[in-house]
Amino acid sequence: MKFSKLFLIALSASLFISCSNDEEESNKPEGVYDNGFFILNEGSQAEGTVSFLSNDLITFEKDVYGPANNNDIPGGYLQNIFFNGDNAYIISGGSNVINVVNRYTFKLVDKIDSGLVNPRYGVVKNGKAYVTNANEYAWGGAWDTEGNTDDFVAVINLKTNKAETPIPLNGTGNRIIEENGKLYITDPNNSDKLLIVNIATKSLETPVTIGSNADSIEEEDGILYILRGPYGSRSEIVKVKLSDKSVSKITFPETLDGAGFMDIEDDKIYYTVGSSVYAINDNATAASTTPIVTSPAGYVYGFAVNDNRIYIADGVFTKDGQAYIYNLNGTFLKELTTGIGSNGFYFND
Amino acid sequence: MTLKKRFAFCFLLLCQIILAQQDTITKLKEVIVSDKNLKNFSNTQSVQRLSDSIINKNEALLTDLLNFNSTLYFKEYGRGMLSTVSLRGTTSSQTAVIWNGININSQMNGSTDFNTISGSDYNSVSVKAGGGSVIYGSGAIGGTVHLNNDLEFYNCFENNLKLDYGSFNTIGINYKTTISNKKWSAQIGFSNNSSTNDYKYVNKYNWKGEQRWNRNGEYTIFTMNANLGYKLNSKNTLKLYSQTSNTDRNTSLVTETETPSKYVNGFNRNLLEYEGNFGKLNTNFKTAYIFENYQYYADNTTNNYTYGKTESLIAKADIGYTFFKATQINGVLDYSKTTGTGSGFGTNTREINAASLLVKQDISASWKNEFGLRKEFTDNYKSPVLFSLGSSYQFGKLYLLKLNLSRNFRIPTFNDLYWEEGGNRDLKPESSYQAEVGNVFTFSNITLTQNFYYIKIKDLLQWIPGKNGIWSPQNTDKVNSYGAETLFSWKKQVGKNIFTVNATYAHTISENSDTKKQLFFVPFDKATAGISYSRNKISAYYQFLYNGFVYTRADNNPEEIINDYTVSNIGIDYDFRFLESFKLGFQVLNLFNEAYESLENRPMPGRNFNMYLILKF
Q1: Does the pLDDT at position A17 exceed 50?
Q2: Whole-number pLDDT of residue B7
C-alpha cells in the first residue's frame, strides 16, 4: 500500500513537471530515454524486451526495461506501446498486463493487470486508455463464432490504472486509432470491416466494409488510410472519408501482392511489400512499384516512418533480430541488433 | 513375527523366483530385454536397461527416471508439465518411444511427452542410443526409449502396490497384479499420479516483492494396463497388450496474470501378437490399434477447446529363418494407416507400406554381425532407403567392441503436412547417417561403456515465416552431431553390505553445419550418478544430476543461456518384511534447494519430500 502511494505521489509530481515543461516548450532532456525511440521486441510467451536508440543514432541499449526494474519481466508477447503524459504503457498480450513506466527513466510505475484478455493496441483520450483485446482466439474450434465476436475495448482510467466497463465489439479488433471522439478499429484476421466506436456513448456505430486483411490504419486530414494485403488477391489502400464514411481505393498491381505495413508522414504514404519500402503522395491514385529501399530483413515485422527516417524491424524468433534505419531516399543510416520478434518503433518526443 | 505367520499362506502362492533381494541393488548394467528385436538385433549398439528396482527409486513420471539415470536431456515446462527429450544432440521428435515394440510417438507432433508416462507401468525401461529406423521406423535418429511389459510363464501370483505421498500434495498409486502359470500369463494394473503442484519458486519474487509460486500447475495422470499371454502349445503363443491413459493438466503460468490454460490428452493402445517358433522357422504377426487425442483449452474457465486425434492401424508380419546355425534372416512387411482429425488440420489419412530385411550372423560366440534394410512406400513423402550395418566382437573377457553404421529418418507429422494455414505437403523426411563405435570394458565388478558417434542430419524441418506472414515448415537446416557417452557401473558386496555406483556422462556437440553454431537447447555436458548402499532390510541411496548450460538462441548469444544446474536427491527405505516385501521409504528431492530450470521462466521446485510404501504380496 505504502509502496503504491509513493508511486502515485511520484507519478503526480512528474506529471506536474512534465506539464510545466510542455508550456515552456523546452527541449531539455527529461531523462536517459528522452530524445530517442523504443523498439519493442515481442519475445516469447514468457518474456519480451524493449530496446532504445537515441535520435542521434549513437546511444543504444538493447534491453532497457529489465535493468531499470530489478530484472522484472514486462510479460510475454509485447505488442504495443502508447504514451500519456510522462508515462509509457507497454502492452503484454501474452501476460494480460500493461506495464506503466516513466517514459524517460523506464522505471516501473504500476502494472495494469485486470480487465485485459490478450490485449493488442491502445490509444489515449481524455485520461482514459482504450485498448483492443482479442479475448479468445478462434482457432478452428466449434466456438469459432464466439472467438470472432468476443473482442472488446478495455477502458482504463489512467489516474487509477483500473479498468472500467469494457466496450464489446461484437467482432474482431486489432489496431486502433482515435479521431474526434471516435475509435477506428481494424483487424487483419477475421474481419472485413472497419469498426467505429463512439467514446461518449460507448457504443458501436455502423461499421464500414473495407475488405479482409486490413491492418495498418492512419488518419490524415479527415481521411482514414487503411492498408490491406489479402492472400491471393490484390493489395489495396482503402480511404474512408470521416465526414460521410465514403470509401475509395487505390488497388495495387499484382506484383505488390501481400503488402505489409503502412505509415504516413508529411503527406506521403509509405508502405511495405516483402522487404521493400515504397512511397506515394497521399493524393495519388495509383501505387508506386519502384521501391525506395529494399532492406535485408527476411521478415518485416515492424515498420515506421518518422522525422525523415524509415525504420524497419526484421522479426527473427530463434535469435535476436535486426532493425534497419534509412533516410527517406533509402540511404542506409544504421543497423541494430535488437531482440526476439522486433515488431514496432515508438518515438519518445 | 506373528504377522509373518499370518501371511504365511501368501507365500505358498508366491513366485518361485524371488527377485526381492536384488531389489535393493541399483543396477544399471546393459542387458537384453524381451522386445524381440531389441533382443535380437541390438548387439552392435548400446542398450541401457532400467529395471523395476530403479524405477521404484525415482519419482513416478518417466522424465525423472530418465533424467537421473541416463544421458537423455530433458526440457520441462515446469514440474509435471510438457517434457520433451533430446538424445545425442537431436530434436525432440528424433527420439522414438517404443511400447512393446511399437513406435508410439505422436502422429500429430512427432514427439512424446515424458510427463504423461508413469515408469512403474512397465517391467523395464530401456534406452537404446543410436539409430534404429530400420526396425522402429520414424524418429529413431538419436535413439529409442523402450517401454516393456515382459510376460513370463511360470506359476506365479503376485501383487505389487506402491503408494507415494509427497510435497505439493503429490499422490501416487500404482497397483499391479501378476497371475501366471505355464500356459497363461496376465499382468493387470493401474497407476494414478496427481499433484496440486503449487510449489514456490526458489528466490523468485514479483515486482511487488511477493514470493512467486507455480500457479495453475495441477496435474492428474491415470493409466490402466492389461497384458495377457497364452501359450497354445510349446510352439505357438498369443499375446495381448492393452493400455489406456488420460492426462489432465493445467499449464503452469509463466506470469501471474496470463490466461490460465489446460491441456488434456490421452491414448488407447492395443496390440495383439502371435508368435510361432518352429525350429529354424519363426514367425511373428502383430496387429495394433493406437488412438491418441488432445484437447487444449486456451482459457480453462471456458469449455472451448482446440483438439486433435489420430487413429492408427498397424499390421506387421515378421518371418525369420535360421540358416546353418549362425545366420538368421528375417523378412518383415508392415502396413500402417493413420487417420487424423483436428481443429488445426482437418481430416487426413496416410498409408505407409514398408518392407525390411534383417540379417543376423553369429560367426562365433564372440563375433556377431547385423545387417538391416528398410524401404517405405507412401504417397505422402519420398522415402529414403534405410539401412543398418553392425558388428560386435568380444576380445577376451575384458573388452567388447561394437561398430554400427545406419541411415535413419523422421517423417513429417500431421501438423507439418496439413496444418491450416501453413502446412506443407511437399516436405521431405528428415534423414540422417550415423556412425558409432562402442567400447565395453568389463573387469571384476566394473562395467564401463564408451560410445563415440557421429550423426549427419539433413532436411531438418523448421517452421519459418513465409509470404504474408504465414508460418510454414520447410526442410531447412543441416546438422552435424557428434560426441561421446560414458556409462559406468560398479557393484561390490562385502559381507552383508552391498555398494553400487552407476554413472553416465554425455558430451555432445550438435552444430548447424552452415552457421557452425551449437543447436539451442542442446547441452554440451550432462552427467548423472547414483550411489546406493544396502544391508539386510535397509537401503540408502543418493542421486546426482548435472546439466550443463544451454544456449537459447540460434546465434549462441552468450547472454541468452539457461544456466547449468546440479540437483541431488537422497533416499532411504526399510523393508519391514510383513509381507513378501513391505518397504517404507523417505526421500529428499533437490536436497540442496537448487534454484534451477530447464526452460526460460519455468522454474523447478526447491527442496521437497516424498514418502513411499511398496508392498508385495
Answers
A1: no
A2: 38
Closest Cβ–Cβ partner in B306, B468, B553 for A140: B306
Grid cell, residue B557, equals 548469444
Which chain A residues have any C-beta within 8 angstroms of a chain B C-beta?
Answer: 3, 44-47, 69-70, 72-73, 75-76, 92, 94-97, 108, 111, 113, 116-118, 136-137, 139-143, 146-147, 229, 231, 258, 260, 274, 298-299, 315, 318-320
Beta strands (DSSP E) in A282-337 are 293-294, 300-306, 309-314, 322-327, 332-337
Q: Which residues, at least 6 apart from A312, have a Cβ–Cβ distance to it below 8 Å?
A: A272, A275, A277, A295, A297, A300, A302, A303, A323, A324, A325, A326
Residue in A46, A111, A298 nearest the CB of B601: A46
Does residue B17 register a pLDDT over 50? Answer: no
CA distance linking residue B285 with residue B314, whole number of Å: 11
Among the listed residues B485, B374, B395, B394, the one whose alpha carbon sits nearest the alpha carbon of residue B436:
B485
Which cell numbers hold the place of B92? 525432440
Tens digits of per-residue pLDDT, B318-347?
Answer: 999 998 878 999 999 999 999 999 988 889
Q: Which of residues 374-433 of B touch A (CB under 8 A)?
A: 420
pLDDT score recorded for residue A5: 44
Position A99 pLDDT exceeds 90: yes
Residue B509, min C-alpha distance to chain A (Å) = 19
For residue B104, give the nearest of B289, B282, B250 by alpha carbon: B289
Q: What residues contact B538, with CB distance under 8 A and at least 6 apart?
A: B572, B573, B574, B575
* pLDDT tens digit sequence for B217-236: 999 999 999 999 998 988 99
- CB of B61 closer than 8 Å to CB of B164: no
C-alpha cell at A97: 498486463
Tell me the pTM: 0.87
In terms of DSSP bridges, do strands B497-512 and B471-494 run parallel, antiparallel, or are they unpaired? antiparallel
Domains observed in chain B: 2-568+592-616 (2.40.170.20)
pLDDT digits (tens, 9 = 90+) for A122-156: 999 999 999 999 988 765 544 455 667 889 999 99
Q: Domain residues of chain A, as ranges?
A: 33-82+93-112+295-320+336-348
Q: Is the ipTM of this complex over 0.85?
A: no
- Residue A133 CB coordination number (10 Å): 24
Q: What burial class does residue A335 get, using C-beta atoms within 10 Å of its C-beta: 0-12 exposed, 13-18 middle, 19+ buried?
A: middle
Phi, then psi, of B12 in degrees rounded to 5: -60, -30
Query: Are B503 and B527 within 8 A, CB to CB?
Result: yes
Is the Cβ of B6 closer than 8 Å to some Cβ of chain A?
Answer: no
Q: CA-based angle B11:B12:B13, to the nearest 5?
A: 90
